[in-house]
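so i finally got all the pieces together for this one. its two components total, 222 residues if u count the protein bits. some of the lines might not be protein, just check the labels. i wanna see the whole assembly predicted at once instead of chain by chain like last time, that was a mess tbh
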Amino acid sequence: GQNIDQPTEMTATEGAIVQINCTYQTSGFNGLFWYQQHAGEAPTFLSYNVLDGLEEKGRFSSFLSRSKGYSYLLLKELQMKDSASYLCAFLTRSYKLSFGAGTTVTVRA
Amino acid sequence: GAGVSQSPRYKVAKRGQDVALRCDPISGHVSLFWYQQALGQGPEFLTYFQNEAQLDKSGLPSDRFFAERPEGSVSTLKIQRTQQEDSAVYLCASSPPVQETQYFGPGTRLLVL
């Protein structure tokens, strides 16, 4: 079976840093994705990790540990526009994305 | 360039009515995926095409759901005899080969009354 867990909600202050953790269990794995989704909009691609380690892309970084079934998304210098749902998903052996329920991040002034 | 487009953006159907949802993938993208997203949840896989071949339909919830991609480009998801539990956002995504990033369309929000 397949399972993926992430916190439901997080709140942080503008300019701060937030780390969203994601754990997964799967019998087949082809990489870990993070998507951002604003209310009523499509998920937009943020990052992709297939090997262990940290991938940095501007204010956003993503980390993967395959042996631990663990990833995190790090959002730095938070801006109000970063308020959104963040979806963790792994790519299965059959190439479909298996998503978590999403973490709603609220950025406060 | 143009992203993934979907139509209609919103659809209200009476219970029992058939609906057809359209997806135009990014030009040249070989792989096309359909997902269903309930309120407050992550997207759930429905089906996957590589060109015109439907390689995986394991996520389709019932035989009322049918998807096609006859020419390997545009895809249609059809739901027959809609039920209230079919109310959701239906997302389409495309990617070059399957191993690469899937890009999502804006979705069709279906409400079945």
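The two ends of chain A are 41 Å apart (CA to CA).
Chain A touches chain B through 22 residues (CB under 8 Å).
anyway lmk what u think
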